[in-house]
Structure formats: structure tokens, C-alpha cells
Amino acid sequence: MKRKLTFLSVLLVWSFQTVGAMAQNLGDGIAAFSLQDYETARAIFEPLAENGDGDAAFRLGWIYEGGFGVARDPVQAQAWYGRAAQHGHSEAKQRLLELQMADPKAMSVARLEEAAAEGSVKAKIELARLYAAGDGVALDKDRARSLLLSLCQEQTSETIRAYAQVALEAFGDETHVCVEQ
Prior knowledge:
This protein has about 180 residues and is mostly helical. It has helices at about 1-25, 25-35, 40-50, 55-65, 75-85, 90-100, 110-115, 120-135, 140-155, 160-170. It has a domain at about 105-180.
């Protein structure tokens, strides 16, 4: 009888701990993070992210990218941002792109094209450079010009337009004016 009571007591304690852990939600993780209890925040976010919570996955990416309570790990950060992006988290898509653009040569041309189509200025600049030089892609000066012209037309940043203007002039294209002289 004593063995059964001990077993039941252990089972009861374990079940309360399990229910307590399951009851933790994103808000609990955010609270722990804001109190700089990064280990607890990570422990809360991980099971949530593993179960498809894009916000939790994004916050894990942030933890690994910033080195909050863990060693900085851009590979882990990209993995968590990637999971969050798969669940439609727009900030995660942006952070993932920014981390990948930190080393544009590591990105595939297809991914750069996708990012450029989504409006990424960095991706358009990198693609224009690749196509203009034939660096890892077939030389395609028309595609490079097209990307630079899109920067002229779409950008409100004077610096980006000036960059595009100089690059177009390097192609010998004096007909397009990105920046008022």
C-alpha cells in the first residue's frame, strides 16, 4: 500500500509540473525575457515554437541572434527565423533576409531574385553587381540595368538613387537620370 501511495504521489507531483509547464504561454516567455531571465524565456519559447507558434520561433531567433543567455549563433537564429517565416511571421522573413544578406555570396541567386521581387534594395544591388560582372551567373547587363532602373524609380533614398545613377553611367547609360544634377 505504501508503494502505491508513493507512486501516486510522484505521479501527482509530475502531473502538476507538466500542467504548469503547458500552461506557460508566449506572454510568460516575453515577461521572462523582459526581466532578463533568458534561460526561462528560451525554455518557454522552445516548446511553443516546436508546436508551430511563429511568434515564439521569432523570439528564439532573436535570442540566438543577439546572444541573450546563449552564445551568439547566426545559424540557429536563421533556423528559428526560418520556422517563424514558414508560419507567416513577416518580421522573421525580414530578419532572415537581413542575416542572409550579411553574406550575399552565401545566398542563392534564386533567393536573391525572390528578395528583389519582394522589394529588397540590398538584393537588387547585389543582383545588379552579379549580373554586371557575370559573377556566379551568366553575364547579363540588361538584367543589371533593369535592376538599377528599378532602384531609380522606386527609391526615395537619395543615396540609393545616386548609387544607381553612378552604376548606370558606368554602363555608358547617360539617358536615365536618377538624381537631379
